[in-house]
Design goal:
Elements lengths: L5 E6 L9 H6 L8 E2 L2 E2 H10 L4 E8 L9 H8 L3 E5 L4 H12 L6 E5 L7 H13 L4 E7 H7 L10 E3 L2 E11 L27 H4 L1 H8 L5 H12 L3 E5 L12 H14 L2
Parallel strand pairs: 1-4, 1-6, 4-5, 7-10
Antiparallel strand pairs: 2-3, 6-9, 7-9, 8-9
């Protein structure tokens, strides 16, 4: 257990101009409101955060807090002061910075997650945050080796984002930590949407990591720890890539295929 509590930032807004396939399929305005295995996604994610030994306050970033007014589990946490709301901005990076401005330096360190990380457990969150604190990182992100995912769930194919590096194929777990004011510049990574496995968005990384680092990443000529070292040098901070021993960690509800997979997995867990 850490000697410091993280402020969790939960990104729950619907990005402007983007129609989410899961929300559209089930007839909801926001993916975070869609029930999965009987409970709205956002309620599952927030409930999991409350069970983490490392998380204290929770900030939900969304366009309008009244969208969650009918979720009793969320309302109870608002009443006791655990959950507060921050109005979302146009981009992910702007929304994260809005949450950090609202929390201020007193809110440090910050743990950033999304409202569709429904397979995450307190154990997954605490493993990541314990590693971040142990490493005394300024900023961190989590990755799982794709070999573990495919061995655990054969036939899942490309249900996770895959990044081919010299030390294996890695999948982004879509969780991050920002632990110092010096690390705020690293939030620019969110301009790429957190989907570095998407070929259409890869070039958006160039201004953030440099052309040479992008070349090494794009053609798998650098290791995961090598990427962290390059990020550390670029931003002048101690950046860490945490290797996660959990096959569930990189699987979020991006589309109907992953949604159905998660629903089945949750049903198995909660028998």
């Amino acid at each position: 257990m850490n000697d410091r509590q993280y402020t969790a930032i939960v990104l729950a807004a619907q990005r402007p101009g983007i129609v989410n396939s899961v929300a559209e399929h089930f007839g909801y305005s926001h993916k975070c409101l869609v029930p999965i295995a009987g409970r709205p996604m956002i309620e599952r994610v927030v409930t999991t955060l409350t069970k983490s030994e490392n998380v204290g306050r929770i900030q939900i970033v969304i366009e309008d807090a009244t969208l969650l007014k009918d979720l009793p589990g969320i309302q109870a946490l608002i009443t006791d002061g655990t959950v507060t709301f921050v109005k979302s901005e146009k981009t992910l990076s702007q929304s994260v910075m809005a949450a950090i401005r609202a929390g201020g330096s007193d809110g440090l360190p910050y743990f950033i997650t999304t409202a569709d990380n429904c397979l995450h457990t307190p154990a997954i969150i605490d493993h990541f945050l314990n590693e971040v604190s142990s490493e005394k990182a300024d900023a961190a992100w989590a990755m799982t080796n794709d070999k573990l995912v495919q061995e655990t769930y054969p036939g899942t194919g490309k249900i996770t984002g895959q990044h081919k590096l010299t030390d294996g194929i890695w999948s982004n777990c879509n969780i991050y930590a920002v632990c110092s004011e010096e690390a705020f510049a690293a939030i620019e990574l969110f301009k790429a949407g957190g989907q570095f496995g998407n070929k259409k968005k890869r070039k958006a990384m160039i201004p953030m990591i440099g052309l040479w680092s992008f070349f090494l990443y794009r053609f798998g000529l650098v290791s995961l720890s090598g990427l962290a070292k390059r990020a550390s040098k670029l931003f002048g901070i101690h950046a860490v890539a945490v290797k996660m021993p959990f096959a569930d960690a990189p699987i979020d509800a991006d589309d109907l295929v992953s949604y159905n997979f998660i629903a089945d997995r949750l049903a198995e867990r909660e028998k």
